[in-house]
Write a structure and sequence with these properties.
The protein has 15 helices and two strands. Strands 1-2 form a two-stranded antiparallel sheet. With 297 residues, it is mainly α.
């Protein structure tokens, strides 16, 4: 009897130990993730020479902290920088336009592609098309970069926003994500819509699309992050300075003749705001979208 009564206590004790270890692990992971962000935030309030001398570090010495970097950024103070406030916010606006356009168009295109593959399984090529989508996910962008550049050049889309947006419009990972999400939706919804006299287009837009809100929200966050942080492909396509995105523009601060870390760090930290806002707006849908299809039956 003593052994039987001690078994639940042992299990409970092991469970508490496991919970403590799990919490400690997540605390360490959170610190590793938050460290660069916090170090960058603190560095944005200090002169650039300190970043060169000490690197990124969490230093709470408030005597060296100042708002001059942000005053330079917003044009409140004169600066010897190679850019001015007008150029910075022009690049900021370009990134916003490019990101919003990319997210909206990518979600719409990928949704309808996934809808056709998933909801019409009798289509003979649906399995082959899904296989091709998954296969393209295994190909690094660096391999596709040269053919895409040649294609954009032939289509005369160099130095245009269309040249940046169109090649990545049909994103394989987004199509696959929508496909996985739609697999958990009942096919009876389509039959109910047809009985009510709804067209196939109406079913996809009025019935299925609202149900896919968590998937749209999850992919909106990921697509926005990818588009906002993308620098390699826009740098290949754009030629005009007034069409540069924020990432390309900030990269011009690093030159062989001098590096302006004052504006670089402040501009980079201010550039995080749109992604944070998107995450805060859609975070309640994120977990639902990511866990969709994990449990069936």
């Amino acid at each position: 009897m003593a052994n039987n009564s001690s078994a639940p206590k042992t299990i409970e004790s092991n469970h508490k130990v496991a919970m403590v270890l799990t919490n400690l692990l997540f605390i360490v992971i959170c610190f590793l993730i938050a460290f660069p962000l916090l170090a960058g935030l603190l560095a944005s309030f200090r002169p650039g020479r300190e970043l060169v001398q000490n690197g990124l570090a969490i230093n709470w010495d408030f005597s060296t902290m100042t708002l001059n970097n942000y005053k330079y950024l917003f044009g409140m103070l004169g600066s010897d920088s190679v850019i001015d406030s007008a150029k910075y916010f022009m690049w900021y606006k370009n990134s916003l336009i490019l990101t919003i356009s990319t997210v909206i168009l990518t979600l719409l295109v990928c949704y309808f592609v996934s809808y056709g593959i998933t909801m019409y399984p009798k289509f003979k090529l649906s399995g082959f098309l899904l296989f091709m989508v998954i296969a393209t996910m295994c190909v690094p962008f660096e391999i596709l970069m040269l053919p895409l550049y040649q294609e954009v050049t032939v289509l005369k889309l160099i130095d245009t926003r269309a040249g940046v947006i169109l090649p990545g419009l049909c994103a394989a990972s987004t199509i696959f994500f929508f496909h996985q999400y739609m697999q958990g939706l009942p096919r009876e919804l389509l039959d109910a819509g047809r009985i009510d006299g709804c067209t196939e287009y109406g079913i996809s837009v009025k019935i299925m699309m609202p149900i896919c809100k968590p998937a749209f929200a999850s992919m909106a966050i990921l697509c926005a992050m990818g588009s906002w942080n993308n620098m390699l492909w826009p740098m290949l396509v754009f030629r005009s300075t007034n069409k540069f995105t924020l990432q390309i523009g900030l990269n011009t601060l690093l030159t062989p003749y001098g590096n302006n870390y004052d504006l670089l760090i402040a501009g980079s930290m201010f550039g995080i705001i749109p992604i944070l806002l998107i995450y805060l707006l859609f975070q309640r849908y994120l977990i639902d979208g990511m866990t969709a299809g994990a449990v069936k039956g």
